[in-house]
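Researcher: Good morning. I'm working through a list of sequences from a screen, and I'd like to move beyond sequence-only analysis. For each chain I'm collecting a predicted structure so we can compare shapes side by side. This is the next one on the list. No need for commentary yet; just the structure.
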Amino acid sequence: MKRTSPRRLFADKAARWVVTAGGLAIIASILGILFFIVHEVAPLVFSASVVTERTHTLPGAQALAVLTDEYRELVAAFDADGHVRVASLATGDLLADAAVVPGPVAPASVSVPPGSTAFVVAMPDGRVAVQRVAFSAAFSAGHRAVSAELPPASVIEVDAAHHPVTRAAAQVSPDGENLVVAAATADDALILIRLTATTNGMTGETVRSTSRGRAILPAGVTSLLLDVAQANVYAGLADGRIGWYRVGPDGTPFDLLLSLPSPSPPSALTLLIGDRSLVVGRDNGAIEVWFPQLRGTDRSLRHVRSFPSLSGSVRALAPSPRGKGFLALDATGQMALMYSTSERVLWSGAAPVPGATAVAYAPKADGALVAGVHGAAALAIAAPHPEVSLRALFGKVWYEGYEQPGYTWQSSSGTEDFEPKLSLTPLLFGTLKGTFYSLLLAVPFGVLSAMYASQFLHPSLRHVVKPVVEIMASLPSVVLGFLAGLWLAPMLERVLPALILMVVLLPPTIVLAGLSWERIVRRFGARVPAGTEVFFFVVVLALAVTGCLGLEPFLERTALGGSFPNWLLQTLGIRYDQHNAIVVGLAMGFAVIPIIFAIAEDAFSNVPRNLVSGSLALGASRWQTVTRVVLPTASPGIFAAVMVGFGRAVGETMIVLMATGNTPIMDLSPFNGFRTLSANIAVEIPEAPAGGTLYRTIFLAALLLFALTFAVNTAAELVRQRLRRKYSSL
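Model: Good morning. Structure tokens for this chain:
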């Protein structure tokens, strides 16, 4: 016996090692991609941290309200003795001191307007004082110097009868020239005063005007708030209700709207950035978020969400200047960092200073300041992705300005006033919707054509048809998407009734054509050349399609009122979008059919010929042999073909990106568009800041796509192996 040459043995071993190394490299590459995606997604689940940077004793009495600069180096405190003092947190040195009001001040009479660096004080003699704090930073020789100025306070006489002002709110311009004050007096009156200064650009003359409005409050006021736009006044009432006044052009509060009563009165109010979310803290520690809704003349105040209650009465609320988060401080010294959109408590703990009475967010939203009886503490806040939670990503969220909770994807907006909407549910829905409509076309066409080509088609034609279909798989998806978006979508809008007519008429037409061909074969027998049935059916289908297209104008004119999209909207209430699921189904189905056809045709062709011959020898017809012997035996390969086509459709990007409206909506209608996970990644990733929430959420979408295809392929392999074992005995 001749021995195998060493050269061939070496070549076999080398080939085996190369193939093994290549397989391991592919596995390592896939795992590397997975690990990279997980590494980018992992920070989304990291918890927030609040760290005390520095503490120091403050000069003066107890701090009732505080402000800080963007670097958290200075603290401006309104003290119980009526003074505003600015001190350094590093040394405790007093930098500025201004006496705003005489005598002791009640804690509840001092407030800080949202988005402002000013203190507002309600005085017992019927006046309101507004003290601005102007922080500034200068850089010299690489060193930073932060300073603060205290301009003269603005003192406004609210009540000529000198009734005590119990609560006050205000908004003041940075230069202090324009001022709006809302005040509640002891006799349950709401007074609104507007001071306006207008400078003539030609002469430089400044004209000052004052307007005053008054309204009656339905109950005693526990807290008062004026929005940044100076168009709405919110009042917490002693009976637990929330009052909402609109402000007229003349400065008069009007059109009072009241919420439902509550057993606990509001103790603190604030507005989140954008003035669309009202945060309410109550005496029993409850924290709620309300949406003031305004639709023309219709208004409503809706309780949207509730947070876990604090252990004591909510003493202070500080909104974040760069998001929908806020800090809460209660009477027991407990603090909590919360985020409205995701409804998350990011952090909670005890205040770093004993007897904490005031809290303020830093202008950069990266820290805060807490003050109490014995000093103040600067906090560093790290909450990189507060808007992310399972509810925000996959559940219904009630967003600002919306009528009800919903699944919404809107990654960016013009300003930070609007909350990002990062629900992945509409993207998952769009992915499955596009896959369903594409497989609805590709599976029957791909499997049945593979069955016909391998079992019925003449070999001379099969040698032509199979390569042509396989070449179709090489068409670039960007070309298919381009044609679908610019050519197919407009054309389909014109002939859609004809397409629906084809779906109804072509199946019975094909059945009748088959019966006719059978009669022809029986009559003429061997005189009918093998394979000519293909041309017969092509002619029948061409005539049927031409007939449907010819009937389309008549059908649309007589039954559809001249326009199918208009009829669809007026009759069924369904809006027709030119770039819809049907367009994607046709285009992506065209891309998936060659893949399903190639794999399924191989599965049919690999059925042992002895099984086919034995079935035919026992008297079974060709159709009975194919359906009862060949099809079950080839079912593992057919199932694998369908699953490969499913994976191709799920991961398709360019076709769905160019052929749909790319709108992330959840609608089962085939006449509307959608957005898929893969298309969303392609659209959003170029504009996503590296390391930001949107950036990591896009990677989460990629991880979901990875997991979806992995799960489907794993399930497909398990089913395929089971089918193989089941039919291996045939």
